[in-house]
Amino acid sequence: MVKLKEQLWTTLLELKDAEFKQFKWFLKHDDILEDFSGIPEAFLEKAERCYTVDLMVQKYQDPGALKVTLKVLEKIYRNDLVQRLEKSFSRLQDLKNHDSVPLKSDHERKKAELGDKIKLMIQERQMKIREIKHSAELSNKSADKHVADSERVFAVLLQSVKRSLTYLIKAINEKRKTAQKQADDFIRELEQEISDLTKTSNKMEQLSRTENHLNVPFGSLPLTKNWTEVSVPPPSYGGSVGTAVNQLQEEFSKEKEKLIAKAKLHRVQQFAKDVTLDPDTANPNLILSEDGKQVYCGDVKQNLPDNPERFNCAANVLGKQSFSSGRFYYEAQVEGKTSWDLGVVKESIDRKLSVTANPTNGYWTICLRDADKYRTAAVHLSVKYPPKKVGVFVDYEKGLVSFFDVDSADLIHSFTDCSFTEKLYPFFSPGLHYEGKNSTPLIVSPVNYTD
User: Of the candidates 223, 232, 335, 450, which lies 20 to 30 Å from 211 by C-alpha distance?
Assistant: First the structure.
C-alpha cells in the first residue's frame, strides 16, 4: 500500500490553485467532520501542498487525515479524486493498525492507548506553540509597521511646524524691518530739521555781532513739521502668530487626511492578487497581450470560438482568477484612456446580450466616458484629479467593493451592503477604439506594496 502522506500529497497536486485555496478554506473551519476541529488559519495561510498534508496528519493522525481529505474533496466537487483515494485505501481499519503489533494483554493495550494519547497531546501543544509564535511574529510586524507609520506622520508634522515657524519669523522680521525703516526715516527728517535750525541759529548769531545789527532783519524760520502727533508704535505681531497657527492647523488637517487615506490604501493593498486576463472571455474585438496583462479594442473583429464564457456584444474581458470568500485587491493603469470600465462581476452575468452595468445585474463597476465623466451606473462620481491607476478592493464577507486613486490614495467610490452569493471575477473593459482616440491599452499592473 502506498504511504498515506505520499498519497495525500499526490492527490493535492491534482488540485488547481483555486481548488487548493478552497480546500484550505474548508480545513480552517471547525466541525468539518464530526469530532474534528479546524486547523488554525495562521498555519494554512501560506502553506504549500506538502506542508498542508503534514498539518492534517499532525492534527488528525493518519485515519483522520484521510477522512477529512475525502470529505473536503467531496465539498469541492472532486469526486474523481475521492474515488481514487478510496480505492487506494479501501480498508481504513488496516490503515489504523498497519504499523501496530498484536497486543498480548489488556495492560499492554491500555499502555499503548495512553502512549498514543500522550503523543497526540504533545503534537497539539507543539502546533499551538507554532501558532502562538506565528501570531507573535504577525504582532511584531504590525508593531514595526505602526512605528514606521508613526515616524512618517510625525516627520511630516515636524516639517510643517518648521516650515510654518520659518514663515512666521519671516513675517515678524518684515514687520520689524518696516517699523525700523519708518523710525529711521523720521530720525533722518528730524536730524535734517535740527541741522536747518542750527544753521539758522548760527546765522542769527553772526548777524547779532555786526555793526548796526539792530537794523538787519533776521529772516524767517526754516520749514519744519509739527512732530507733536508723530510716533512710531511697535507693530502687532499677534496677527501674524494667529494666522500662522490657523494655517498650520489647516495644513495639519490636510496632511492628516492624506496620511489616513494612504494608510487605508496600504491596508487593502496587502490583499493584492496576481490577476491575468482570460482570453476565453474576451470580446472578439479585444486584443490581449501574450502575458495577459494588457488589453485594448481593435477595429477588426477576430474570428474566435463562440464559447459560453465569451462576451459577444460588449468590449469586455474577465480575469482568470475567481473569488468566493475573503478579501482581494488588484490595480489597473488607465492613464491616457478616454473610456474604460473596472470592477468585479458575478459569475452568472449574461455575456451574450448588452445589459446595464449595475449591482442588480451583477456588476459592481465604475467607468470613464468622454475623457472626463466618471460614473457608476447612472450616478455621477466626483473625482478631484483624473486617476492614472485605479485600485479595486473586495471584502466578500462584508459585501464591500471599493475603488481607489492609487497615486493620491483618494477613495473614488464604494459599494456597501452588497449580497455576494457566487463567485466574483475581476472585470475589465478598455472601451471602444474611437478611431484611435482610445487606443491606449488598459493594463493590469503590479501592486507596489511592501509588508
Answer: 223
What DSSP letter does each residue of 276-296 carry, written as one string?
Answer: -B-GGGS-TTEEE-TTS-EEE
- Output the pLDDT for position 346: 96
Measure the CA–CA gap between 191 and 339, rounded to whole angstroms. Answer: 76
b or e along 395-421 (b: 16 or more beta carbons within 10 Å of the residue's beta carbon)?
bbeeebbbbbbbebbbebbebeebebe
Here the contacts of 379-387 (C-beta below 8 Å, separation 24 or greater) are 381/412, 381/413, 383/412, 384/408, 384/410, 387/334, 387/412
C-alpha span between 441 and 282 (Å, rounded): 14
pLDDT of residue 1: 38
**Is the distance from CB of 397 to CB of 381 less than 8 angstroms?**
no
The rounded Cα 187 to chain-centroid distance in angstroms is 65
Handedness of CA 42, 48, 50, 53 (dihedral sign): positive
* Range from 34-48, 125-139, 325-339 carrying the lowest mean pLDDT: 34-48
Exposure on the CB side of residue 67, measured as CA atoms within 13 A = 17
Q: What are phi and psi of 49, to 5 degrees?
A: -65, -45
Residue keyed to cell 519708518? 182
Q: 442 and 334 in contact (C-beta within 8 Å)? A: yes
The pLDDT, as a whole number, for residue 214 is: 58
pLDDT band with cut points at 50, 70 and 90 for residue 106: low
Q: Which pLDDT value is given to residue 101?
A: 42
> What are the distances in angstroms from CA 349 to CA 101, 276, 363, 395?
59, 19, 8, 20
Residue 426: enclosing H or E segment and its boundaries?
strand 424-429
Provide the pLDDT for residue 31: 65
pLDDT at 105 over 70: no
